Protein backbone atom coordinates (compact mmCIF):
# COMPACT_ATOMS: atom_id res chain seq x y z
CA UNK A 1 0.00 0.00 0.00
CA UNK A 2 2.87 2.42 -0.37
CA UNK A 3 6.02 0.73 0.78
CA UNK A 4 8.42 -2.00 -0.26
CA UNK A 5 7.11 -5.36 -1.45
CA UNK A 6 7.62 -6.97 1.95
CA UNK A 7 5.81 -4.17 3.76
CA UNK A 8 2.91 -4.30 1.33
CA UNK A 9 2.60 -8.04 1.89
CA UNK A 10 2.76 -7.54 5.66
CA UNK A 11 0.02 -4.92 5.58
CA UNK A 12 -2.08 -7.18 3.39
CA UNK A 13 -1.73 -10.03 5.88
CA UNK A 14 -2.98 -7.79 8.69
CA UNK A 15 -6.12 -6.90 6.77
CA UNK A 16 -6.61 -10.49 5.61
CA UNK A 17 -7.24 -11.58 9.21
CA UNK A 18 -10.58 -9.80 9.47
CA UNK A 19 -11.89 -9.66 5.93
CA UNK A 20 -15.40 -10.91 6.60
CA UNK A 21 -15.99 -8.54 9.53
CA UNK A 22 -14.61 -5.61 7.54
CA UNK A 23 -16.73 -6.38 4.50
CA UNK A 24 -19.90 -7.12 6.45
CA UNK A 25 -19.81 -4.48 9.17
CA UNK A 26 -17.25 -1.71 8.73
CA UNK A 27 -16.95 -0.88 5.04
CA UNK A 28 -20.63 0.06 4.86
CA UNK A 29 -20.06 2.87 7.36
CA UNK A 30 -18.51 4.86 4.49
CA UNK A 31 -21.19 4.13 1.87
CA UNK A 32 -22.87 7.54 1.91
CA UNK A 33 -19.48 9.25 1.50
CA UNK A 34 -18.62 6.97 -1.42
CA UNK A 35 -21.94 7.68 -3.13
CA UNK A 36 -21.52 11.42 -2.67
CA UNK A 37 -18.00 11.41 -4.10
CA UNK A 38 -19.00 9.28 -7.11
CA UNK A 39 -21.78 11.72 -7.91
CA UNK A 40 -19.62 14.81 -7.56
CA UNK A 41 -16.89 13.24 -9.73
CA UNK A 42 -19.40 12.54 -12.48
CA UNK A 43 -19.02 8.75 -12.52
CA UNK A 44 -21.52 7.25 -14.95
CA UNK A 45 -22.06 5.02 -17.97
CA UNK A 46 -19.00 4.58 -20.18
CA UNK A 47 -16.52 5.87 -17.62
CA UNK A 48 -13.53 3.93 -16.37
CA UNK A 49 -12.90 4.09 -12.63
CA UNK A 50 -9.95 3.02 -10.48
CA UNK A 51 -10.21 2.67 -6.69
CA UNK A 52 -6.80 2.69 -4.99
CA UNK A 53 -7.12 0.90 -1.66
CA UNK A 54 -10.39 -0.66 -2.79
CA UNK A 55 -10.74 -3.14 0.06
CA UNK A 56 -13.69 -5.46 -0.41
CA UNK A 57 -15.07 -3.42 -3.27
CA UNK A 58 -18.03 -1.42 -1.99
CA UNK A 59 -17.05 1.80 -3.75
CA UNK A 60 -16.43 -0.08 -6.99
CA UNK A 61 -19.77 -1.87 -6.69
CA UNK A 62 -21.46 1.53 -6.40
CA UNK A 63 -19.48 2.78 -9.43
CA UNK A 64 -20.48 -0.31 -11.44
CA UNK A 65 -24.13 0.33 -10.56
CA UNK A 66 -23.70 3.73 -12.23
CA UNK A 67 -22.53 2.02 -15.40
CA UNK A 68 -18.77 2.51 -15.04
CA UNK A 69 -16.06 -0.02 -15.85
CA UNK A 70 -14.16 -0.77 -12.65
CA UNK A 71 -10.61 -1.52 -11.54
CA UNK A 72 -9.20 -1.79 -8.03
CA UNK A 73 -5.86 -2.08 -6.24
CA UNK A 74 -5.31 -3.21 -2.65
CA UNK A 75 -2.66 -4.82 -0.44
CA UNK A 76 -5.03 -7.52 0.83
CA UNK A 77 -5.63 -10.57 -1.37
CA UNK A 78 -8.44 -11.62 0.94
CA UNK A 79 -10.33 -8.35 0.60
CA UNK A 80 -9.82 -8.45 -3.17
CA UNK A 81 -11.31 -11.93 -3.19
CA UNK A 82 -14.51 -10.55 -1.68
CA UNK A 83 -14.45 -7.63 -4.14
CA UNK A 84 -14.18 -10.09 -7.02
CA UNK A 85 -17.34 -11.84 -5.83
CA UNK A 86 -19.20 -8.52 -5.57
CA UNK A 87 -18.21 -6.98 -8.90
CA UNK A 88 -19.17 -7.66 -12.51
CA UNK A 89 -17.10 -10.13 -14.47
CA UNK A 90 -14.17 -8.39 -16.12
CA UNK A 91 -13.39 -6.00 -13.27
CA UNK A 92 -9.62 -5.52 -13.04
CA UNK A 93 -8.56 -6.25 -9.44
CA UNK A 94 -4.88 -6.37 -8.48
CA UNK A 95 -2.73 -6.73 -5.38
CA UNK A 96 -0.21 -3.90 -5.36
CA UNK A 97 1.44 -0.80 -3.94
CA UNK A 98 -0.39 2.51 -4.22
CA UNK A 99 2.91 4.24 -4.92
CA UNK A 100 3.72 1.99 -7.87
CA UNK A 101 0.47 1.82 -9.82
CA UNK A 102 0.61 -0.91 -12.50
CA UNK A 103 -1.45 1.00 -15.07
CA UNK A 104 -0.81 2.98 -18.22
CA UNK A 105 -0.75 6.76 -18.54
CA UNK A 106 -4.21 8.31 -18.81
CA UNK A 107 -5.93 4.95 -18.52
CA UNK A 108 -8.83 6.09 -16.28
CA UNK A 109 -11.46 8.81 -16.25
CA UNK A 110 -11.72 8.90 -12.45
CA UNK A 111 -9.45 7.64 -9.68
CA UNK A 112 -10.76 7.49 -6.13
CA UNK A 113 -8.81 6.64 -3.01
CA UNK A 114 -10.31 6.69 0.49
CA UNK A 115 -8.31 6.08 3.68
CA UNK A 116 -5.32 4.78 1.73
CA UNK A 117 -2.95 7.70 1.09
CA UNK A 118 -1.76 7.42 4.69
CA UNK A 119 0.12 4.24 3.72
CA UNK A 120 2.29 5.99 1.11
CA UNK A 121 5.91 6.49 2.16
CA UNK A 122 5.80 9.67 0.03
CA UNK A 123 2.20 10.96 -0.24
CA UNK A 124 3.09 13.66 -2.78
CA UNK A 125 4.76 11.16 -5.09
CA UNK A 126 1.80 8.81 -4.66
CA UNK A 127 -0.64 11.53 -5.75
CA UNK A 128 1.54 12.31 -8.76
CA UNK A 129 1.13 8.65 -9.65
CA UNK A 130 -2.63 8.99 -9.25
CA UNK A 131 -2.60 11.86 -11.74
CA UNK A 132 -0.43 9.93 -14.18
CA UNK A 133 -2.98 7.16 -14.70
CA UNK A 134 -5.94 9.56 -15.17
CA UNK A 135 -6.62 11.24 -18.51
CA UNK A 136 -6.33 14.98 -18.96
CA UNK A 137 -9.48 16.57 -17.57
CA UNK A 138 -10.27 13.51 -15.48
CA UNK A 139 -10.80 13.54 -11.73
CA UNK A 140 -8.62 12.41 -8.84
CA UNK A 141 -10.67 12.05 -5.66
CA UNK A 142 -8.81 11.56 -2.37
CA UNK A 143 -10.68 11.29 0.90
CA UNK A 144 -11.09 9.64 4.25
CA UNK A 145 -11.59 10.48 7.89
CA UNK A 146 -12.44 14.04 8.86
CA UNK A 147 -10.33 16.16 11.18
CA UNK A 148 -9.61 14.27 14.43
CA UNK A 149 -11.50 16.76 16.60
CA UNK A 150 -14.67 15.95 14.64
CA UNK A 151 -14.34 12.16 14.87
CA UNK A 152 -15.28 10.35 18.08
CA UNK A 153 -13.75 7.09 16.91
CA UNK A 154 -10.37 8.71 16.23
CA UNK A 155 -9.87 9.21 19.97
CA UNK A 156 -10.03 5.44 20.44
CA UNK A 157 -7.55 4.88 17.60
CA UNK A 158 -5.10 7.36 19.12
CA UNK A 159 -5.27 5.54 22.45
CA UNK A 160 -4.62 2.23 20.69
CA UNK A 161 -1.57 3.80 19.03
CA UNK A 162 -0.36 4.92 22.46
CA UNK A 163 -0.10 1.25 23.48
CA UNK A 164 2.50 0.57 20.79
CA UNK A 165 6.26 1.10 21.06
CA UNK A 166 6.29 2.58 17.55
CA UNK A 167 3.53 3.50 15.09
CA UNK A 168 2.65 0.95 12.40
CA UNK A 169 2.44 1.75 8.68
CA UNK A 170 -0.03 4.52 7.98
CA UNK A 171 0.03 5.98 11.48
CA UNK A 172 3.35 7.81 11.74
CA UNK A 173 3.87 11.55 12.01
CA UNK A 174 4.62 11.78 8.28
CA UNK A 175 1.47 9.94 7.16
CA UNK A 176 -1.28 11.80 5.29
CA UNK A 177 -3.86 11.10 7.98
CA UNK A 178 -6.00 14.26 8.06
CA UNK A 179 -7.90 16.24 5.42
CA UNK A 180 -5.42 19.09 5.79
CA UNK A 181 -2.50 16.76 5.08
CA UNK A 182 -4.32 15.08 2.19
CA UNK A 183 -5.10 18.41 0.53
CA UNK A 184 -1.52 19.56 0.97
CA UNK A 185 -0.23 16.41 -0.73
CA UNK A 186 -2.64 16.87 -3.63
CA UNK A 187 -1.62 20.48 -4.16
CA UNK A 188 2.11 19.75 -3.86
CA UNK A 189 1.66 17.02 -6.46
CA UNK A 190 0.56 19.73 -8.90
CA UNK A 191 -3.11 18.78 -9.11
CA UNK A 192 -5.51 21.73 -8.73
CA UNK A 193 -8.30 21.03 -6.23
CA UNK A 194 -11.66 22.09 -7.63
CA UNK A 195 -14.02 20.80 -4.92
CA UNK A 196 -13.92 19.72 -1.27
CA UNK A 197 -16.66 18.45 0.99
CA UNK A 198 -17.12 17.43 4.60
CA UNK A 199 -19.87 14.93 5.38
CA UNK A 200 -21.36 13.45 8.51
CA UNK A 201 -20.18 9.85 8.74
CA UNK A 202 -21.64 8.20 11.85
CA UNK A 203 -20.52 4.69 12.72
CA UNK A 204 -23.72 2.81 13.52
CA UNK A 205 -23.75 -0.76 14.84
CA UNK A 206 -26.55 -3.03 16.13
CA UNK A 207 -24.62 -3.78 19.34
CA UNK A 208 -21.26 -3.47 21.05
CA UNK A 209 -20.07 -6.90 19.93
CA UNK A 210 -20.60 -5.97 16.29
CA UNK A 211 -18.77 -2.67 16.76
CA UNK A 212 -15.79 -4.55 18.17
CA UNK A 213 -15.86 -7.10 15.33
CA UNK A 214 -16.01 -4.31 12.76
CA UNK A 215 -13.23 -2.10 14.10
CA UNK A 216 -11.18 -5.05 15.32
CA UNK A 217 -10.90 -6.09 11.67
CA UNK A 218 -8.89 -2.99 10.74
CA UNK A 219 -5.17 -3.25 10.13
CA UNK A 220 -4.33 -1.01 13.08
CA UNK A 221 -6.27 -3.02 15.65
CA UNK A 222 -5.02 -6.30 14.19
CA UNK A 223 -1.45 -5.00 14.48
CA UNK A 224 -2.01 -3.77 18.02
CA UNK A 225 -3.63 -7.02 19.13
CA UNK A 226 -0.60 -8.93 17.87
CA UNK A 227 1.82 -6.51 19.52
CA UNK A 228 0.28 -6.02 22.97
CA UNK A 229 -2.53 -8.57 23.15
CA UNK A 230 -6.21 -8.40 22.25
CA UNK A 231 -7.22 -7.89 25.89
CA UNK A 232 -5.34 -4.58 26.12
CA UNK A 233 -6.78 -3.36 22.83
CA UNK A 234 -10.29 -4.43 23.81
CA UNK A 235 -9.97 -2.51 27.08
CA UNK A 236 -9.24 0.69 25.13
CA UNK A 237 -12.14 0.00 22.80
CA UNK A 238 -14.57 -0.61 25.69
CA UNK A 239 -13.49 2.57 27.46
CA UNK A 240 -14.37 4.65 24.40
CA UNK A 241 -17.46 2.81 23.21
CA UNK A 242 -19.47 1.95 26.32
CA UNK A 243 -20.71 5.52 26.47
CA UNK A 244 -21.95 5.26 22.89
CA UNK A 245 -24.39 2.42 23.64
CA UNK A 246 -28.00 3.59 23.42
CA UNK A 247 -30.91 2.39 25.53
CA UNK A 248 -31.91 -0.12 22.85
CA UNK A 249 -28.39 -1.57 22.70
CA UNK A 250 -27.39 0.00 19.40
CA UNK A 251 -24.07 1.84 19.19
CA UNK A 252 -23.41 5.14 17.44
CA UNK A 253 -20.27 7.25 17.28
CA UNK A 254 -20.31 10.52 15.39
CA UNK A 255 -17.54 11.07 12.84
CA UNK A 256 -17.00 13.08 9.70
CA UNK A 257 -15.45 12.23 6.35
CA UNK A 258 -13.88 14.63 3.88
CA UNK A 259 -12.80 14.34 0.29
CA UNK A 260 -11.14 16.57 -2.29
CA UNK A 261 -11.56 16.44 -6.05
CA UNK A 262 -8.69 17.53 -8.28
CA UNK A 263 -8.69 17.78 -12.08
CA UNK A 264 -5.77 16.45 -14.08
CA UNK A 265 -4.33 19.23 -16.29
From TrEMBL:
<dbReference type="InterPro" id="IPR013216">
    <property type="entry name" value="Methyltransf_11"/>
</dbReference>
<keyword id="KW-0949">S-adenosyl-L-methionine</keyword>
<dbReference type="GO" id="GO:0032259">
    <property type="term" value="P:methylation"/>
</dbReference>
<dbReference type="GO" id="GO:0008757">
    <property type="term" value="F:S-adenosylmethionine-dependent methyltransferase activity"/>
</dbReference>
<dbReference type="InterPro" id="IPR029063">
    <property type="entry name" value="SAM-dependent_MTases_sf"/>
</dbReference>
<keyword id="KW-0808">Transferase</keyword>
<feature type="domain" description="Methyltransferase type 11">
    <location>
        <begin position="50"/>
        <end position="142"/>
    </location>
</feature>
<keyword id="KW-0489">Methyltransferase</keyword>
<dbReference type="Pfam" id="PF08241">
    <property type="entry name" value="Methyltransf_11"/>
</dbReference>
<protein>
    <submittedName>
        <fullName>Methyltransferase domain-containing protein</fullName>
    </submittedName>
</protein>
Amino acid sequence: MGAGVGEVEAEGRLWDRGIQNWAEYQEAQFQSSFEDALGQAGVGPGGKVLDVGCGSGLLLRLAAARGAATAGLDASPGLLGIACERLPEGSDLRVGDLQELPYGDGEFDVLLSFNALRYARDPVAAVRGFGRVVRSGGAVVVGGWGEPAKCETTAMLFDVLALLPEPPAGSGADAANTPTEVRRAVREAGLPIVFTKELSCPFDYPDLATAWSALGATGLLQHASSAVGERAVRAVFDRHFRGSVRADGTVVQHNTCEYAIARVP
